Automatic annotation (TrEMBL):
<dbReference type="GO" id="GO:0140359">
    <property type="term" value="F:ABC-type transporter activity"/>
</dbReference>
<feature type="transmembrane region" description="Helical">
    <location>
        <begin position="144"/>
        <end position="163"/>
    </location>
</feature>
<dbReference type="InterPro" id="IPR039421">
    <property type="entry name" value="Type_1_exporter"/>
</dbReference>
<keyword id="KW-1133">Transmembrane helix</keyword>
<dbReference type="Pfam" id="PF00005">
    <property type="entry name" value="ABC_tran"/>
</dbReference>
<dbReference type="GO" id="GO:0016020">
    <property type="term" value="C:membrane"/>
</dbReference>
<dbReference type="Pfam" id="PF00664">
    <property type="entry name" value="ABC_membrane"/>
</dbReference>
<keyword id="KW-0812">Transmembrane</keyword>
<feature type="transmembrane region" description="Helical">
    <location>
        <begin position="183"/>
        <end position="204"/>
    </location>
</feature>
<dbReference type="InterPro" id="IPR027417">
    <property type="entry name" value="P-loop_NTPase"/>
</dbReference>
<dbReference type="GO" id="GO:0016887">
    <property type="term" value="F:ATP hydrolysis activity"/>
</dbReference>
<dbReference type="InterPro" id="IPR003439">
    <property type="entry name" value="ABC_transporter-like_ATP-bd"/>
</dbReference>
<keyword id="KW-0472">Membrane</keyword>
<dbReference type="GO" id="GO:0005524">
    <property type="term" value="F:ATP binding"/>
</dbReference>
<protein>
    <recommendedName>
        <fullName>ABC transmembrane type-1 domain-containing protein</fullName>
    </recommendedName>
</protein>
<feature type="domain" description="ABC transmembrane type-1">
    <location>
        <begin position="1"/>
        <end position="205"/>
    </location>
</feature>
<dbReference type="InterPro" id="IPR036640">
    <property type="entry name" value="ABC1_TM_sf"/>
</dbReference>
Length: 323
C-alpha cells in the first residue's frame, strides 16, 4: 500500500478509513479462509471417504438407507451451521458507518464540544445504527424459523435410520452393536459433509478476497519512490537517475495539471515558473489558486498532465523522489 503514489490515495475507494478496514477485515478473513478452511476441507474429505468404507463393511443395508436420507440430514446440518454463524451476511460492514461517526467524534471531541454538537452526533450515530438493527431483527426471525425446520429434518432422518435398524435386528440381519456402530459412523459423516458443503461459500468469498488483495499487490504505481520499489510482487529494478549534487534550481515549463480525483478541474494551464537556488519566493493567491499544488508538484506527489518540471535542468520524471 505505501508504495503507491499520493494520487492513488485521493480516490474515494482508497481513503485511509477504507484501507484500514480492508487491512483489518479482508486480510484477516483471507488468512482464515485460505488456511483454516482449507485444512478443515481436506480433513473432512478424508473423514468422509474413510467413514463410508467402514460403514459399508459393517452393514451395507443400513448404510444405503441412511445415505438415502443424506439430502435431508446434510441440508439440515448446513442450515444449522449457516444460521449459527449468522443469517443475512456479515453485519460488520453495516456497522462501519456508525463506527466512523463515533471515531471522528471522539477524535475531534474538542470541536464537537466547542459547538455543543454532542446531541447531533448522537442522533447521527443512532441513524447509522438503524439499518444494521433492522437487519439483525429480521435475521433473528428468519433464523428461528429455518433453524426449527433444519432440526426437524435432522431428527426425522435419525428416526428413519434407527427404525430401519430395528427391522434389521428383528429379522436377524444385524446386531444392535453393528447397527449403532454403523449409525454413529454415518452421523459423523453427515456432520462432516454438511460442514464441508457449508464452507463452499466461504471458499468462494476467499477467491474474491484474494483478487482484492492481489489487485493492490500487483498494482504498479505511476510514480516510484526508489529504484528498488518497482511495484507489484516482483523485485524488478527500475531505471532512473540519482543526482550526486543538487544545486536547487527548479523550473516549470508549460505545466498543465489537474488532480487525479478531479480530472475535469484543470488547475494550471501552461504554468511557467523559475525558482532560483538559495533565494526566497512568495507565492500569493486566494484559497484554491494552486499554491500548495506547486509544492506538491515539486515534491513529485503528482506528475503534470503535460509540460515539464525540472530540477537543475533534469526532468523531474527521470528522478526518484527518494534521491
Amino acid at each position: 500500500i505505501i508504495r503507491n503514489e499520493i494520487g492513488w490515495f485521493d480516490d474515494t475507494t482508497n481513503t485511509s478509513a477504507v484501507l484500514a478496514s480492508r487491512l483489518e477485515m479482508e486480510a484477516t478473513l483471507l488468512r482464515t479462509i485460505v488456511v483454516d478452511r482449507s485444512t478443515i476441507l481436506l480433513q473432512n474429505v478424508s473423514l468422509i471417504v474413510t467413514s463410508f468404507a467402514i460403514a459399508f463393511i459393517l452393514n451395507w443395508r443400513i448404510t444405503l438407507v441412511v445415505i438415502a436420507t443424506y439430502p435431508l440430514m446434510v441440508s439440515g446440518h448446513i442450515s444449522e451451521r449457516i444460521f449459527m454463524s449468522g443469517f443475512g451476511g456479515n453485519l460488520s460492514k453495516a456497522y462501519l458507518a456508525a463506527n466512523m461517526v463515533a471515531g471522528e467524534a471522539v477524535g475531534n471531541i474538542r470541536t464537537v464540544a466547542a459547538f455543543c454538537a454532542e446531541a447531533k452526533v448522537l442522533d447521527l450515530y443512532t441513524q447509522r445504527l438503524a439499518e444494521p438493527a433492522r437487519r439483525s431483527f429480521r435475521r433473528g426471525q428468519i433464523a428461528g424459523v429455518f433453524y426449527g425446520v433444519s432440526q426437524f429434518f435432522i431428527f426425522t432422518s435419525y428416526a428413519l435410520a434407527l427404525w430401519y435398524g430395528s427391522r434389521l435386528m428383528r429379522d436377524g440381519l444385524a446386531s444392535f452393536k453393528t447397527v449403532m456402530k454403523t449409525f454413529m459412523v454415518l452421523i459423523v459423516t453427515a456432520l462432516a459433509m454438511g460442514e464441508m458443503l457449508a464452507l463452499v461459500p466461504d471458499l468462494l468469498k476467499g477467491n474474491q478476497m484474494v483478487a482484492s488483495v492481489f489487485d493492490i499487490l500487483d498494482r504498479r504505481p505511476s510514480i516510484r519512490s526508489s529504484a528498488e520499489s518497482g511495484g507489484g510482487r516482483s523485485e524488478e529494478v527500475v531505471e532512473g537517475e540519482a543526482l550526486e549534487r543538487v544545486q536547487g534550481l527548479i523550473e516549470m515549463k508549460g505545466v498543465w495539471f489537474s488532480y487525479p480525483s478531479r480530472p475535469d478541474a484543470v488547475l494550471f494551464q501552461g504554468l511557467n515558473l523559475r525558482l532560483q537556488a538559495g533565494r526566497s519566493m512568495a507565492i500569493v493567491g486566494p484559497s484554491g489558486s494552486g499554491k500548495s499544488s506547486i509544492i506538491a508538484l515539486i515534491l513529485r506527489f503528482y506528475d503534470p498532465s503535460s509540460g515539464r518540471v525540472m530540477v537543475d535542468g533534469n526532468p523531474h520524471s527521470s528522478l526518484f523522489p527518494s534521491h
